[in-house]
Each structure stands twice: as structure tokens, then as C-alpha cells.
């Protein structure tokens, strides 16, 4: 039985949620409330998500971020989904940190293709001081090109976020990935609190927070509700929420996980949109495995950002030409 309070978010409640982002937030989303959203009949859920989406965003516009892996493979962590963990044999070749010139050339291409944000990922548990020194030089240079900068470097020690902020870092990506209860099934080399601590460091430094998760790791709907509750209850909630559909890579423990029904992924996007109305919700990894019709459903459910460019970090992403063709077919414009 669905509570009437979650069946349809009244306009008064929506206003309150939005306003709370600017002041201190009192009302929080409970896991049962979010599960009730996920349990809605699909048309009701999409309608609610699309209505909220239109109040806060241009529903026909999508923001483009391009990814680059600045340091690849050999990571000491044991994230069960990740092809870059040293302990799994996935065929990913280790690559030391790329040179500034290589990164700048990729950033220039990303800009020429229409991306507005350049997101740099590194397969570290966390950066050492010399890594931060190199990253600050890179961030300054990318920023000078006129691109927004994003980095995802793992766990940050006190003081590191401030250094990144000073270099001009706009966003830090650090995913909670799943619910606290399911986390230990996927990762054992760190805990949920480590992630929350870094998110706090990023917030305190005044960097925008990019934080989301992965769907399709064998988790339950309850676990997806638990993830969305964690994200929506961050105070304030993240500016950017990437929702990844697990890319199954041979050699990782999660390879061979039973594929999750596509509509569950769309439902998760809708729940993110409803509970975090002002955030940019990114339809992230997994698009190469998705039909165009499913991607269109994700946009209807409130996704308004994608990773753009033929590669994610180590796995493939749709070609830019096919994304351009999709935008054309759907009448979407880019931000
Ligand atoms: N090492 C840093 C960390 O873990 O925060 C930054 C890089 S890590 C690759 C960034 C994010 O990519 C992870 O938090 C996870 O959400 C996502 N990711 C990694 N492998 C994935 C996969 N196979 N499918 C979907 N998302 C994945
Ligand atoms: C995010 O949430 N997804 C991106 C980005 N943030 C860093 C990474 C997806 C990685 C997919 C697997 C790979 O290409 O290695
Ligand atoms: Fe390392 Fe990040 Fe991959 Fe985990 S997700 S193994 S921390 S690169």
C-alpha cells in the first residue's frame, strides 16, 4: 500500500524541498518513502519525475561531460565492479599518470566536440601529496581552456580538497555507490564512513559535490532506495548525481551478475530526480549497452546530463556521432 504523501508530491512539498536546499534542511527522505516512489506504477513515477524536472530544469537540454582516465589500473582497492583493481585480472593495462600535454589534447578535443566539463579519474585509493601537486597543475590548465573541471581521485586527506579548490576544481566526484547495508557485499577495503568523510571534506572546501552510485550489482530495490536516501539526505544534496548501470567486465567479481531489468534503472533515475530536484542527474556508465529508447526513457525520468565521448575510463561509451544523432532524433539540445 503506497502512502498518499508519497504517491504524489504536492506542489507545497516540492517548494519546501527546493527551498530547504538553500537553508538548513529539516525534512529528510526516509528509505520507505523512497521505496514507495520506486514501487509506483511506472507512468505515475515518470509523470511525477517529469513534472518536477520541468519546474527546475529545461526538459529538452542535456549537459555533456567528457571523461579521461589520468592514471589507470593497479588500484589497491577491491571494488567488486571495477576493472582497475589490481587484484582482478581484467586485461586493463596499468598506465602511470598521463602527461600534461596528453591531457590537454584530450581536453581540447572534448571542448571542440561540445563538452562543457572535463572529468579526470585516477585509480588510486587516494592521492599522495605529489599526485595533488600534479593534479593542481592539470586542473589550472584545463580550467584555462574554459572548461569546467571535475576530478575523482579517491579518498581525500584533510587539506587536500582545499588545494584542489585553489587550483580551480569545480566538482569532485566521489560515489557512495550503493546503500550502507549492501556496501560490504561489494567493497571491503574501505567503509561507507570513509566515503562520507571525503564528501564532507569536499563540501567544506567549497567544491561542488558529484556523488551517485551503481545500479545492477545484484542489489535489491530496497538497496536502491537506501542509496537514493543517502544521497538525498546529504545536506545539501549533491549538485551532480551520476547513476551508473553496472558495466560488467570479465575478471571482476560482479561479472556474470544477473542483468537488472531496464525499467528498474529508469525508476532509480526518477527517484533521484524527485528527491533531488535541483541536481543534475547524470545517465552515466552503461549507455553503450542500452537501447536508444531506454536512454530516452531516462531523459523523461529526469536525467539531464551524460558522459560524452567514445570512452568512459577503461570501457566504451557511445560514439559522439551516434549521440549527436540521438539528440537530433529526440529534439534535445546541449547545454
Ligand atoms: N578511484 C576513485 C574512486 O573509487 O573514487 C575514482 C575512480 S572510480 C573508477 C569512479 C567510479 O566509477 C566508482 O565510484 C564507480 O561508481 C564507477 N565505476 C567503476 N567501475 C564501474 C563499472 N564497471 N560500472 C559502472 N560504474 C563503475
Ligand atoms: C561515475 O559515476 N562514473 C564514471 C565517473 N563517475 C568517474 C566512471 C564510470 C566507469 C565505468 C567503468 C570504466 O570505464 O572503467
Ligand atoms: Fe580503485 Fe576506484 Fe576502481 Fe575502487 S573504483 S578499484 S577505488 S579505481
Task: Report what the structure shows.
Mean pLDDT is 93; it is low at 1-24. By secondary structure, the protein is of the alpha/beta class. The longest helix has 16 residues, at 129-144. It has helices at 4-7, 11-20, 31-38, 42-56, 100-113, 129-144, 160-167, 180-186, 192-204, 221-232, 262-275, 292-300, 320-330; strands spanning 61-71, 117-122, 148-152, 171-173, 208-210, 213-215, 240-245, 280-283, 305-307, 333-334. Helix 3 (31-38) packs across helix 10, helix 6 (129-144) packs parallel to helix 7 and helix 11 (262-275) packs parallel to helix 12. It has 13 helices and ten strands. It is globular, with a radius of gyration of 19 Å. Strands 1, 2, 3, 4, 5, 6, 7, 8, 9 and 10 form a ten-stranded parallel sheet that branches. Iron/sulfur cluster is lined by residues 75, 77, 79, 82, 84-85, 123, 125, 154.
Please give a quick description of this structure.
α4 packs across α11 (262-275) and α5 packs parallel to α6 (129-144). Helices cover 42% and strands 14% of the residues. The chain contains 13 helices and ten strands.
**Helix-strand makeup class:** alpha/beta
Largest sheet: 10 strands, parallel
Beta-strand residue fraction: 5-15%
Order of helices and strands: HHHHEHEHEHEHHEEHEHEHEHE
Compute the average pLDDT.
Answer: 93
Quaternary structure annotation: single chain
Q: Can you give the helix content as a percent range?
A: 40-55%
Please provide the count of β strands.
10
Shape: globular
For the terminal residues, how far apart are their CA atoms?
40 Å
Low-confidence stretches: 1-24
Q: Helix count, per DSSP?
A: 13
Bound molecules: S-adenosylmethionine, 6-(5-methyl-2-OXO-imidazolidin-4-yl)-hexanoic acid, iron/sulfur cluster
Report Rg: 19 Å
Amino acid at each position: 500500500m503506497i502512502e498518499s504523501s508519497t504517491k504524489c508530491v504536492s506542489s507545497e512539498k516540492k517548494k519546501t524541498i527546493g527551498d530547504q536546499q538553500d537553508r538548513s534542511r529539516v525534512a529528510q527522505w526516509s528509505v520507505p518513502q523512497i521505496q514507495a516512489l520506486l514501487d509506483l506504477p511506472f507512468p505515475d513515477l515518470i509523470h511525477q519525475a517529469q513534472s518536477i524536472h520541468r519546474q527546475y530544469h529545461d526538459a529538452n537540454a542535456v549537459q555533456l561531460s567528457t571523461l579521461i582516465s589520468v592514471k589507470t589500473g593497479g588500484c589497491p582497492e577491491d571494488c567488486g565492479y571495477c576493472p582497475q583493481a589490481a587484484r582482478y585480472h581484467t586485461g586493463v593495462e596499468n598506465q602511470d599518470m598521463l602527461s600534461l600535454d596528453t591531457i590537454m589534447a584530450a581536453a581540447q578535443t572534448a571542448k571542440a566536440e561540445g563538452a562543457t566539463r572535463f572529468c579526470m579519474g585516477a585509480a588510486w585509493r587516494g592521492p599522495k601529496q605529489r599526485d595533488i601537486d600534479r593534479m593542481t597543475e592539470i586542473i589550472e590548465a584545463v580550467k584555462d581552456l574554459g572548461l569546467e573541471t571535475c576530478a575523482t581521485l579517491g579518498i581525500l586527506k584533510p587539506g587536500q580538497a582545499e588545494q584542489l579548490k585553489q587550483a580551480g576544481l569545480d566538482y569532485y566526484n566521489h560515489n557512495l555507490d550503493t546503500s550502507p547495508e549492501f556496501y560490504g557485499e561489494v567493497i571491503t577495503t574501505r567503509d561507507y564512513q570513509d566515503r562520507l568523510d571525503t564528501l564532507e571534506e569536499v563540501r567544506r572546501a567549497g567544491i561542488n559535490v558529484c556523488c551517485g552510485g551503481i545500479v545492477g550489482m545484484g542489489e535489491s530495490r530496497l538497496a536502491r532506495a537506501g542509496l537514493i536516501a543517502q544521497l538525498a539526505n546529504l545536506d545539501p544534496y549533491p549538485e551532480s548525481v551520476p547513476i551508473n548501470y553496472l558495466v560488467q567486465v570479465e575478471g571482476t567479481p560482479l561479472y556474470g551478475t544477473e542483468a537488472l531489468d531496464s525499467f528498474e534503472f529508469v525508476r532509480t533515475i526518477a527517484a533521484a530526480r524527485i528527491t533531488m530536484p535541483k541536481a543534475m542527474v547524470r545517465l552515466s556508465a552503461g549507455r553503450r549497452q542500452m537501447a536508444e529508447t531506454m536512454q530516452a526513457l531516462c531523459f523523461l525520468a529526469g536525467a539531464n546530463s551524460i558522459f560524452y565521448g567514445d570512452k568512459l575510463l577503461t570501457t566504451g561509451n557511445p560514439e559522439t556521432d551516434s549521440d549527436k544523432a540521438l539528440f537530433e532524433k529526440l529534439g534535445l539540445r546541449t547545454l
